């Protein structure tokens, strides 16, 4: 995990979309669809592949490892002040923070999600939140030549 301090969660506004999900595998696909719609609305479709993969991994981790009966999972998609930036958050009620493993055996059936996030995200982390549980967050940006042009404009 990067050695950066936790970033505060932006307050919900026109640049933040919040959804609540049940602990069902189907929720991951539904969340990806909502993220795609949000990215299209914000003109950030260049982030779609990276962002949906990161969201899938974060939400799947919460589904598999952070189930707390009677609680739901919250996702937040936040457009960052940079023209091509996005923050994804997954809030769950479990106090257990995921740990990035140094290595994952080739035949392992799990353990690849956080290394993927570490590779794809510009930054990510886990922090406690107000109330029970934690939030796991990741940021990504369009680093393509077109995205770089947008940032310098």
TrEMBL record:
Keywords: Kinase, Serine/threonine-protein kinase, Transferase
One Pfam family from the record: HATPase_c_2
GO terms assigned for molecular function: protein serine/threonine kinase activity
Gene3D superfamilies in the cross-refs: Histidine kinase-like ATPase, C-terminal domain (3.30.565.10)
Domain Histidine kinase/HSP90-like ATPase: from-to ranges: 24-131
UniProt superkingdom: Bacteria
Coiled coil: none
Protein name as it appears in the record: Histidine kinase/HSP90-like ATPase domain-containing protein
Lineage: Bacteria, Bacillati, Actinomycetota, Actinomycetes, Kitasatosporales
């Amino acid at each position: 995990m990067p050695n950066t301090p936790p970033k505060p969660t932006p307050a919900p506004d026109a640049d933040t979309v919040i959804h609540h999900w049940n602990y069902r595998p189907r929720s991951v696909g539904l969340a990806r669809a909502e993220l795609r719609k949000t990215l299209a609305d914000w003109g950030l479709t260049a982030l779609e592949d990276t962002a949906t993969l990161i969201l899938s991994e974060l939400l799947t981790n919460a589904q598999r490892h952070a189930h707390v009966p009677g609680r739901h999972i919250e996702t937040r998609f936040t457009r960052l002040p940079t023209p091509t930036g996005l923050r994804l958050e997954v809030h769950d009620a479990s106090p257990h923070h995921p740990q990035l493993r140094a290595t994952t055996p080739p035949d392992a059936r799990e353990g690849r999600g956080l290394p993927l996030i570490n590779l794809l995200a510009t930054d990510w982390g886990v922090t406690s939140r107000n109330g029970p549980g934690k939030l796991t967050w990741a940021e990504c940006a369009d680093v393509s030549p077109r995205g770089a042009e947008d940032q310098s404009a």
